[in-house]
Amino acid sequence: MLKPKWLAFLALVLVVVVAFLLLGRWQLTAAFESSGAAADAEEYLEPVPLGDLLEPDAWLTEEAAARPVTVSGFLVPGDFGVVEGRLQDGVSGFWVVGHFAVTSDGNEPSADATNAADLPGIPVALGWTSDEASAQQAIDSLESADTNLGSAGAPLSVLAKLEVGQDPLPARDGDPLRILSMSPGQLINTWQTGASDYYAAWLLHTEGLPVPDSLESIAAVPIDESTRVDLLNIFYAIEWLVFCAMAIYIWWRMVRDDYLSDLAERSDARLAERVRRELLLELANERDASGHNR
């Protein structure tokens, strides 16, 4: 039969075990909630105004990255360029990029302005080609008078994906004019026409801007809709289960040791009683023998 102290200790152990189980459940829930689908695919596919996700001179959040956005503005002549080393279907090629002056971020129009220098600017990637000559031909086509780049008075409505800026990569030959990444800061420094403010991101063009036929649409990375599990949280959940087992085992081991100790004490007591009785019996026999001899 369990002693009262062990029953009280069992109640304490059960409280600790319940606490451990709740912590393990919390870790398990966090493993699936924080590492499930990267985002709601339907929400990510729904275009939203650029102003809902990003303001000039602000950082782009993880939740806003790769979202389709709507924005109005125009391409600034003379600010087109080429970004090298852009892979498409496993082929390294070139992106033609430009300076997009934002007349309206989809929520409210920018300040009244007649030129790009008075409007916020953001880099935009227009298309891909496999060779630099085709990229330069595309730029010449965009710079031609026949191409409608839009203007402050007649802006173009554009659909694009809002992308996170990349770190600048220096060219191996040290040429500062070679652009190897979609770094907003680096691209902005190549523009001949400045801007009133700058976006710390870039646009991947989908529709609305004039794109020469020599350029292919840039293949966007699809949204990852797979469900992933955070293995670190799973490991922590297993740890809490191990702690539960350890708590119960420690209680059982202490009760067992106490029980074995009591058994040993009772055994010693029975042995001592048996020895005492045998000694008394032996003394009694000796007394009887001595009485008969008299």
UniProtKB/TrEMBL annotation:
Indicate the transmembrane segments per the record: 234-252
Q: What is this protein called?
A: SURF1-like protein
Cellular compartments annotated: Cell membrane
Keywords on record? Cell membrane, Membrane, Transmembrane, Transmembrane helix
Q: Which InterPro entries match?
A: Surf1/Shy1
Q: What family is this protein classified in? A: Belongs to the SURF1 family.
Please report the record's description of how this protein sits within the membrane.
Multi-pass membrane protein
